[in-house]
Design goal:
It is built from eight helices and five strands; from the N terminus they run H-E-E-E-H-E-H-E-H-H-H-H-H. It has about 190 residues and is α/β, with parallel strands linked by helices. The protein has a single domain, classed as 2-Layer Sandwich (Nucleotidyltransferase, domain 5). A five-stranded mixed β-sheet has the order 3-2-1-4-5. It is globular. It starts with a helix and ends with a helix.
């Protein structure tokens, strides 16, 4: 499996942070073709102390970065729900995963859950099961390889979303003001 990592032109590590289960997915880019390298979960439910869970997330993400040497990390942004305490805990989980990548100078991009779902399924309100099935089809993954927690496939979806987003051409930057427009387009404003 490591041989496939070495041949990839680019490696994207996807993370779906959580305080009970944190998912991860590793996507290799071969030319213009994305392929799954690995996916799994970091089980945290048996660790009672919240701070020890955060420590475990940091340690495991650091190990994943060392093992796969990703060029980029794509992470799911916390979902803004009604429970403020849950949001804070989820934000902490995301923060320690980001800190682990930053310590190794891995560039990070954050994606809203709806954007990830839209990129993979075309529906921003898709279920986790729908995302999993589309990943299976897009990446040609055998169904038995995806018999894991859906947090893992959500993480792989974040990585694939990043691959799609990073391949889009940059939008042309418009003028910042009328003065800027005139400076950029003197032929269109002559005679005014």
């Amino acid at each position: 499996m490591l041989e496939a990592v070495e041949k990839a032109d680019r490696i994207i590590l996807g993370i779906d942070p959580g305080t009970n289960v944190t998912g991860f997915g590793v996507l290799g880019i071969y030319g213009k073709t994305p392929r799954m390298i690995s996916l799994g979960v970091i089980e945290l439910s048996k660790t009672g102390d919240h701070y020890m869970r955060l420590s475990h997330i940091h340690k495991r993400v650091s190990e994943l970065v060392s093992e796969y040497l990703p060029d980029e990390l794509a992470i799911e942004a916390p979902f803004f729900g009604k429970n403020v305490q849950s949001m804070l805990k989820l934000g902490r989980a995301q923060g320690v995963a980001i800190a682990a990548a930053i310590a190794r100078e891995v560039p990070i991009t954050e994606y809203e859950p709806r954007k990830i779902k839209m990129a993979i399924t075309g529906n921003g309100a898709a279920s986790k099961e729908q995302v999993c099935e589309m990943l299976r089809r897009i990446l040609d993954i055998p169904a038995e390889a995806l018999r894991t927690k859906l947090d893992a496939t959500d993480a792989l979806a974040a990585a694939l979303c990043h691959f799609y987003e990073s391949g889009k051409p940059a939008a042309a930057k418009g003028p910042k003001s009328w003065k800027d427009f005139i400076a950029r387009n003197p032929d269109k404003v002559s005679g005014l």
